[in-house]
Amino acid sequence: MRSLSLSPSHSTFSFDMGLLRPASWLALVALPTLLVTGCDLFGSNDNENRVTTDVVIANSGNFSAQDGSLTLYSPTDSTAARNDINVAFINNLALHNDRLFVVDNTQSDNAGRITSFDTDQFGPIDQVLDLQRPPRRIAFPSENKGYVPNLSRFDENFVPDTSTVSVVDLETNSVTKRVDVGRSPEGIAVAEGKAFVANSADGTLSVLDTETDVVTSTLSLNDCPSPKSVFVDGENEVAVVCQGGAEQSSEVLFLNSNEEEVEGRVELGAPVGSANGSQSAYYSEEAEELYAISGSQTYGGGTGEIFRVDTDANTLDTTLDVPQSESLTGISAVGYDDVTQDLYVTRFPVDDSGGPLLTADGTALVIDRAGDVVTRFKTGNAPAHVLFLRETQ
Predict the structure, then answer these.
(1) What total of structural domains would you count in the chain?
(2) Are 384 and 60 in contact (CB under 8 A)?
């Protein structure tokens, strides 16, 4: 049986059929063959059997054109290819049950859909259509169940309403229940029979029982403005990335998943956010490291920095300055390949006003652990999310 590696904290061109892989044995990041710590990984790559076959970058596309696509980059031969997979505006990617799940926002009904693809030929398999609201992400509390936080809608004063999490049956590809949560739910992670949903407009976490699909508690996150990304680390702590704002700095909170209490905080010091509101953080289970980007330099006070947090020690390990360029601006997504020890960072071209140009191909930078650019390649329009496909040899 094949298994895949998902890497939520990270950008295809004319598609070359010759770049498609044969069916291969893929290894899930969550099931490492060797246990390594962040310190072990920094010094050496102990697991020589794992190979990254593809870096998959979701290109959101132009919202009015509804032309989302994928970029497939091979670290082995440094080639990139574009795959037009016939989806709308991509919000998120996820891997589960040997499938790639693409979460997209459809303009026609102000809602969205979730399409699953095989990871060999990237052909469509199934689709969930009855979401009723734009889906933000998807998480998997069990083999045949998905949880989908849905974006809020706004009133005439731009105040978001209370939204929902859709419970999806992955066998029938249908929504079986809609669970009320808070305003602007975004990040979601599963631990200890619970799903933790970040309500970014409320500064809270909704906690769902994954057996009953019922909200059992709502946690107020003091001094955590706009929580967006949620991960579960190697100690089963829930890591919540708080975006920060003008009066409060960004930080990462660590919660005990059983007691549902904050056990630690790591201050980052600059607003966390993506240049196009997409993937602003990434967690590497193998490395036990969380990466958060301060990427919205034009509109959100971002600094162009990337924060690397050691989730074993719950400390800020380092702050990386992304090399600047007159032709590129912002940071839209980030992903860390623990096999090659390279960081993938996507950026936008500069428009006439000096801001990000969202209607042209972006660029992905491959950066080593010291912060130096190793190489770069073109992505599609508006790169938004990075994950990794791996195999064992």
Answers:
(1) 1
(2) yes
Q: How far, in Å, are 138, 153, 215, 296 from residue 134 at the CA level?
A: 12, 9, 21, 22
d(CA 16, CA 235): 42
Determine, yes or no, domain membership for 5. Answer: no
Tell me the two tokens of residue 76.
């082995």
Q: Does 4 map to a domain?
A: no
pLDDT at 8: 40
CA distance 114 to 125: 11
Dist. CA 135–CA 153, nearest whole Å = 12
Residue 18 has pLDDT above 80, yes or no: no
- Summarised one tens digit per residue, pLDDT across range 306-320 is 999 999 999 999 999
Write the CATH number for 377.
2.130.10.10
C-alpha to C-alpha distance for 179 and 384, rounded to whole angstroms: 27
Contact 338, 29 (CB under 8 A): yes
Token pair, residue 93, equals 């990617």
Distance CA 216, CA 208 (A): 6
DSSP H or E run through 43 = helix 38-43
Q: What is the largest CA-CA distance in the chain?
A: 56
Let me know: does 135 contact 127? Beta carbons within 8 Å. no
